Amino acid sequence: MPRFTVDIATQVAGPQDRPRLLAWITTGAAAGLLAVGPLALASSTWLSWRWFWAVLAGLAVCATALNLRWVPHVERIGPPPLRSRPPVQRILGPLSFAAVLFVGATAYFTYAADSAVRGGLGPAAGPVVFTPVGLAGLSGLWTGTLVRRLRPGPLAACSLVLTAASLALLAVGSGSPTAVLGSALIFGSANTVGSAVLPIWAALRAPEQPAAAFSAALVTGSVCAVVTPVVTGAVAEHVSLGPPLLIAALLCLTTAAALAAVPGSRAHRPG
After folding, report:
1. Over 80: is that where the pLDDT of 73 sits?
2. Global pTM value
C-alpha cells in the first residue's frame, strides 16, 4: 500500500472509521491473490502463459481506471510539518514489526511453492497454495474491529505468532499436502491481518505524520524482504529448507513476545 493511501484515509475518514478503511484497502491484496489463483492454475494446465499475462494486464488497466474514478481528490490541509520524519523512538514498535513481518512473509512466499511440489502437488503447486492464502487473507477485513478490541501491538504480536506457526508447519510438513495447505490458510490470515495493522499502528503512533511513519515502516520491511531470500537461500544450500524456515519462525515468535511485553505497544487504542 503506497503512503498516499494513508494520507487519503486520514482525510476522508474519522478516527473511529480509519482503521476499518485501512484494513479494507490492505485486504484488497488478498482478494487479488484469490482472483489470480484460478488463472494461474489454468495457465499451469491448459491456458497459455501469454493469455494469463494478457488477462492480468487487462485487470491492471481496469483497476487503474476504477482508482482514477473512485479515489477522492484531497488537498493538503495546512502547512507541511516542520519535521520531515517522526521520531524513531515513537515508531520503534511498528518498525520492528514491519521488519520481522516482511522476513516471515518473504520466506514463506519464496519457498511455499517448492514445499508444495515436494508434497506431491505437481506443476499446479503454486496456484494450489496461494489460492487458500488469498482466501484466508480475507480475514483482514475484520482487522479494524480487532484493533479496537485488542489494540495494535498485541494484534501485531498475534499475527507474528501465526506467521511462525505457518513457517514451522511448512518446514516440518513439506512432504504432506495437508500440512502445506494448512500452513497456507494460517499464513494467509496472519499476513493480511499483519499487513493491515501495520499502517494503522504507524498512524496511531505518529498521528501528525501518519504517511511518513508508514513509509519508514515500509522501507524497513522492504530492506528485510530483499535480504531474506539471500540469507535463507545460502543457509538452505548447506543444510536443507527446514532450518532457515524454523529460524524465521523463531524470529517471529521472539519479536511477538517482545511486542506483547512492551507497554508502549498497548497504547493509542483507536476510538
Report:
1. no
2. 0.81
